What we know:
This protein is mostly helical. The chain is built from 9 helices and 2 strands; from the N terminus they run ββααααααααα.
Amino acid sequence: MAEHGGRVQSGDGKRPSAWKTLTTNRDLMLLSLAGFGGFWGTYGFVTWSNALHIKGHGVSGTTAGFIVAIFAGVAVVSKPLIGMLGDRVGSARKPAIVILALFAVILIFFGTLDNVPALLIAAPILGLVGYGYLPLIVAMIPRLVSSEVTGTAAGASNAFWQIASTLVPLAIGAAFSATGSFLAAFTALAVGPIIGAAVLYFVNEDGGNRAIEEPEPSDTTT
């Protein structure tokens, strides 16, 4: 193996396979799973909130749509602000863990609410954390992989996160159909962010770049 410009290449000068690099990167796999958990809560809420409010609490369709609009609209402000917070703290992982954990707690709390004023007050708070983790986990990707595969890593991670948006409507629909409970449905939504926060705890935020930029010195003694 030979080192060129801080990157490790094989003896024949070929770069390692991008997909092999990604699938053997423990931290990237954990980050992808954490993002899956976050998307489970976010897109589960967006997909099912209208129906849950209408069927669970008899809220009008217009009001239910307004609640979702507030939730999603807060992202316009929350994403850049929380991204700036991550820059100031110097870490994206720790704030993301806190936000995912808060997201899970607030989802469960949201499931206990049963009147429109309370739902309208809680919706922007839920939106703040429901999207706030996203710029932080996206910012972590370049720290976990070589610059040569950053685009591939971002695309692969996002594709995995999107799987949650296709599976969660089925899961929440099944939970609500089986229980008829507004709270049970929101508790099922909260499972994703809880798992995401737990998994993210084990990610080494700078592990990938340290391995690339600071390789162990070779023994030059003979």
